[in-house]
Amino acid sequence: MKYPVNEIFQTIQGEGYYIGTPAIFIRLQGCKVACEWCDTKYTWKNSYENQILNEEIIKKEKSNKKWSYMTTQNIILIIKQLKWTAKHIVITGGEPCMYNLLDITTLLEEKGYFCQIETSGTELIECSLNTWVTLSPKQKKTTLKSSILRANEIKFPILIEQDFLYLKKILHMIKKRKNNLIFLQPISQNEKALAICIKKCTEKNWRLSIQIHKYLQIR
């Protein structure tokens, strides 16, 4: 199985349940959701004119549209060559669940890594049973019920008060079948959105996710 990789780098997880955890990020190319406030718009299209060699991926000085097809073995080799020590792997995008992730999550787990997927839930989630699924629903495209039920945490982006109406629909689907961890995340560090999130987290006993990597100005 080959995956279109846009970036692979070691940093800390800046959002959600595993915030502050040293992590290796594998960012895949391709997304059909295309949110207007997205901060990784360079991952939306798989244009072949932007395809590069594997070794060029780790030489990228900044995020851009360049990507390369990689096998899980290619990815593991890069991790070992660069002597990265994090054992937490975050597979993100783009929309990573456009691809079958069973191969990559299973093989990484066999090598001693813990896998986390960050997904909008608009595509079927195919991964190992042990993979942690972070669901970040997007209102402009329907979230699959199967994705909602598979999720270990729901990290919901908020800009205005009305955004909670979609979250309410999602939580209604779950009802009492799962005790999901709910995180509210203000979009683009918007101050009004942050105030809304803090208020709602306090009322509902949910958690706040503030994208600390952006405040720290790291990847």
TrEMBL record:
GO terms for biological process: tRNA queuosine(34) biosynthetic process. Its EC number is 4.3.99.3. The keyword Calcium does not apply. GO terms for molecular function: 4 iron, 4 sulfur cluster binding; carbon-nitrogen lyase activity; magnesium ion binding; S-adenosyl-L-methionine binding. It comes from the Bacteria. Keywords: 4Fe-4S, Iron, Iron-sulfur, Lyase, Magnesium, Metal-binding, Queuosine biosynthesis, S-adenosyl-L-methionine. S-adenosyl-L-methionine binds at W37, C38, D39, G94, S136, P137, K138. Binds 1 [4Fe-4S] cluster. The cluster is coordinated with 3 cysteines and an exchangeable S-adenosyl-L-methionine. Binds 1 S-adenosyl-L-methionine per subunit. Mg(2+) binds at T40. The keyword Lyase applies. It catalyses: 6-carboxy-5,6,7,8-tetrahydropterin + H(+) = 7-carboxy-7-carbaguanine + NH4(+). [4Fe-4S] cluster binds at C31, C35, C38. It is an enzyme of class 4 (lyase). Its cofactor is [4Fe-4S] cluster; Mg(2+); S-adenosyl-L-methionine. Pathway: Purine metabolism; 7-cyano-7-deazaguanine biosynthesis. Homodimer. Belongs to the radical SAM superfamily. 7-carboxy-7-deazaguanine synthase family. Catalyzes the complex heterocyclic radical-mediated conversion of 6-carboxy-5,6,7,8-tetrahydropterin (CPH4) to 7-carboxy-7-deazaguanine (CDG), a step common to the biosynthetic pathways of all 7-deazapurine-containing compounds. This is 7-carboxy-7-deazaguanine synthase. It comes from Buchnera aphidicola.
